[in-house]
Amino acid sequence: MKSYPPLDVRVSTPTLELRGATDELLDQLADDVRAGKTHADPLPYDDPMSLYEPDPDQRVAQWLRSIWRGRGRVEPDAWRLYFVVVVDGRPVGMQDLCGVKFSTFGTFTTFSWLSADHRGRGLGREMRSAILHLGFEGLGAKEASSDAFVDNRSSNAISKALGYEPNGSDWDTRQGEPALINRWRLTRQDWEPHRRTDIQLHNLEACRTFLPLSDGHRCV
């Protein structure tokens, strides 16, 4: 979708692709959302979260509306790139990059989910590696952050394996119940030793111009 550059961006690794979350790809992924394959035990998401909606059709509708709203918000302090994770031609989850005061500090955070049918194969780490490459190599970021509930072993293990350092803890709620969150921080300097040469970025220049990056990074 060349008329809206974020939807034309792709990140490819030997195992998977992150493709801009077009409506066509979201429609293909909707069956997994409807079937509850986004869920995990323990609960992974903080409140509010459309994926916790109990009615399957309403869950899909709320999920789509949240993405559509997010696409439309492109401000210096807050923007979000939505990607569908594609493995062997099939959408299996999502991986997002969220600019947080990026134009001032060069900072971003990430969010992801993977269909229950595809967990336990190392895809979570591969997805995160791909989105970090986009943030640091493609957009010139200075720092990435991540957070996960303390009992979300998979997310916390991925952060540790990719070089993030612990950055304190905080409280949040999931479905109204308080729970402790681990916060993680990855600087560009700490990412460099983990930089990969087998991750490719595609159709990025128009997106870089579109986003409110710092003057040193914008292609204008």
TrEMBL record:
SUPFAM superfamilies: Acyl-CoA N-acyltransferases (Nat)
Alphabetized InterPro entries for the sequence: Acyl_CoA_acyltransferase, GNAT_dom, Ribosomal_N-acetyltransferase
N-acetyltransferase domain residues: 38-187
Family matches, as Pfam families: Acetyltransf_3
Domain of life: Bacteria
Signal peptide: none
Protein name as annotated: RimJ/RimL family protein N-acetyltransferase
Source species: Kribbella pratensis
